[in-house]
Amino acid sequence: MKTRSLTAMAVIVFSAGLAGCTDGGGATPVVTVTAASPTPSPVVTPIVTPTYAFTLDQTWDLAAPDEAQGSGCTPGSGLPDGIWFGYANSWTTSDIDFDMACWWTGAEAEAQAAADGVEAYDYYITNDNTTVRVVSVASDAFGLKADVYNLSDTATWMEYTIAQIIADPFGAAPVESAPYRVWIAVNGGEVTSLAVQYVP
Length: 200
Hints:
By secondary structure, the chain is α+β, with helices and mostly antiparallel strands. The protein has 3 helices and 8 strands, in the order H-E-E-E-H-E-E-E-H-E-E.
């Protein structure tokens, strides 16, 4: 700041000194001082991370009293946005052939199992409608699978790309073949995240 004031003062003194001088023709020389153009600030384009209404992450909670977990299992003819359980009959990084099913826990699991004449073990799956829906996969979708080395109540979910999930759905867990049990989060009609449901 101090240097800038001294520079301005030097220009003023220099101009004033010349104002009293003339050339041979009697004309007073004119000194033009052009200020340097300010350097434009760089334009920063913010990175926008999509915010979805329905997500699968480390803390996702699918508890729903008196109903199948997630967004239920009776969506109608289409597949609205929500969190859905079912089977991936086949899958690519572009779309999933999804057969919706119902995942029950607690008293509802016991009631559903009793209706079928069997016993529930913490959970029970019903699949009375085998309609297969082809659901597109978003370009920024990610996949989750449980840490099979730590299958406690606090087991963590590990994040992968959809391609990695397809190549190795269960990691160190016993190898299973399609259809795979999965949860999908659907936003805007596309799968934005997917979690493989490991059942020991």
